[in-house]
Amino acid sequence: MTNFNALKKKKGSNLKAMAEKLETMNKGSGGKKDERIYKPGFDKKEGIGNAVIRLLPAQEGDNFVRQFSHSFNVGSNFYWENSRSTLDEKDPVGISNGLYWRLGDESESTEDKNKYQNIAKNRKRKTKYFFNVYVEKDKNNPDCEGQVMIMECGPQIFAIIEKAINPKFEDDEAIDPFDLWGGAPLKIRALGREIPDGRTGNKVIVPNYEESFFGNVAEFMDGDEDKMKEVFEKTYDLSSFAVVKPFDELAARFKQVTGEDYDKLDKTSEDHAKEAEEDFREQYKELSGKDDEKSEPVEEKKEPAKKEVVADADDDDDDLLDEFARLANGD
After folding, report:
1. What stretches of the chain show up as alpha helix (H) in DSSP?
2. How many CB atoms lie within 10 A of CB 42?
3. 33-266+307-328, what's its fold?
4. For the segment 199-241, what is each residue's pLDDT rounded down to a tens digit?
5. Over 90: is that where the pLDDT of 245 sits?
6. 175 pLDDT exceeds 50?
């Protein structure tokens, strides 16, 4: 903490430093790599990766952070922001995606359905997890060995962690992977899988982590608590990975990139619903000969529930988009 006398001695000396900092901020980071981030090494030529890590508990807050984000472009305009769903709140992109999905579902032609729902798929949210690790071994990243780092991974690796905490079978003992005394090393096993590149259509090799697993339960650092303490005190605060901009700011950015309001399709969908209701009223009137404006059965046929499904969910995740498809098909 700087005291008043020290502040007085430094008067006038901070101007240059502040000017340089502002210049850097205005230019942007230029995609500067976060040296704290660890990703298991993978040899694309050999199509294999092998690493051993130990998950570490956080000094403050949760042991891991789940981050949802959206990254897509419309022409030369790019949107790359964390989603409000990271905080379990509604997000402008999620709302827009839900409306596009519903509009596709209401479309009469397959071409229109695919067109609208592909927009939602292209803008779907992506999931990442962040947690502290100690890298015991990584053949393809030897510089990381013996280091405390922040691991960034997707759902596939994190599913292995979830399975350890909540095993599916009763005779599998649950473990806390973040416990220094009762945890276990995570053995990363990556095998190359060939998939088409979504941008170019060319075949690319990506790592598949399904064969990764936790080893035997063992005390970290062979139970040497001095070493445990030394490593633990090097762990990082993860809270910055859950920082999300305010809803209105994200909505403004969405409009800047796409040229449209996040909820512009809401009225369109309402019009579709009104047209469907009017068609039903006409059919009911022809069949019953009754005045549909006064008919109670017609009032019972109104179905606003479908709109509620869209509004209540951040539907741009793969699983939720599949759920919309399932609901649309009546499964």
Report:
1. 4-9, 15-27, 92-106, 110-122, 155-165, 225-232, 247-258, 265-288, 296-300, 305-312, 318-328
2. 21
3. Replication Fork Single-Stranded DNA Binding Protein (3.90.198)
4. 677 888 889 999 999 999 999 999 999 999 999 999 999 999 9
5. yes
6. yes
